[in-house]
Every structure is written in structure tokens, then in C-alpha cells.
Design goal:
By secondary structure, this protein is an all-alpha fold. The chain has two domains: 14-92; 93-127. It is built from four helices and no strands. The relative contact order is 0.18.
């Protein structure tokens, strides 16, 4: 809630299908933050200067960096389809999806850390 995200509304489902507007902009490229920023720069410099697509890409970068960060360089499984209609972003319950993503990430990190400690303590016992 302190991020200014909507607390009530429709559920947000993660989408592996990238073939929406953002996906069409990044077609034939590996989707990384650097490529998205390069695409924003190229759209801004083009003679058409499509403001909506620049906003979509900017919001996409905000999603990836602030709300759904990754350890990997490539970006996948982000709610791309919600960026097609920017005006409807406030209709969704973003707090719920960010909270569940955070809990799942912490759970995975805890399990990975626990496995590493188990492996380290096992190897110390062997030594």
C-alpha cells in the first residue's frame, strides 16, 4: 500500500505469452532491461514518437525493477497483457500480486539458504 498500488480490484495473473503490444515491440530480441531501455530510446528518437508505447515500456521496466525483480538477466513471466490498456491499470489488485510474489521469492530464498547450510554442515561433518 505504501507503494501507491491498488488494494482492491481484479486479480493479476502472470502471463507467459508475450505477444501483446509490449511483446510486439520487443519481437526477435532477448527481453532484458537493457533491450527494453534501448527500445524506449529508439521509439523516442523515431519520427512517429509513439508516447503510449514509451509509457508501456517505462511501466514495464518499473514492474521488472521495482515490483517483480529477478536475479536473471532475461525477463519472463511478467503481466505483459495488462500494459495494452494503460488506462485500466488502476482496476487491478497490484498489492496482492506484489505481496504473493515477494512471499514466494522469500520462500525460495529461504529454502535455497537452508539447503546450502545443510550441504555445508554435511561437508564439515565429513571433514
Amino acid at each position: 500500500m505504501s507503494l501507491g498500488l491498488g488494494v482492491v480490484g481484479l486479480d493479476v495473473e502472470f502471463n507467459k505469452n508475450v505477444c501483446r503490444v509490449v511483446g510486439s515491440l520487443l519481437r526477435h530480441k532477448v527481453i532484458t532491461i537493457e533491450n527494453v531501455i534501448q527500445m524506449m530510446k529508439s521509439v523516442i528518437k523515431s519520427e512517429f514518437n509513439d508516447v503510449e508505447n514509451v509509457c508501456r515500456l517505462y511501466i514495464f521496466v518499473c514492474f521488472v525493477v521495482l515490483y517483480f525483480p529477478r536475479n536473471l538477466k532475461t525477463i519472463s513471466n511478467i503481466p505483459y497483457s495488462f500494459l495494452d490498456n494503460i488506462d485500466n491499470l488502476s482496476n487491478y489488485n497490484w498489492v496482492k500480486v506484489v505481496h504473493s510474489y515477494l512471499v514466494k521469492s522469500l520462500s525460495r530464498a529461504f529454502l535455497a539458504l537452508g539447503q546450502r547450510e545443510i550441504c555445508l554442515s554435511g561437508s564439515a561433518a565429513v571433514l
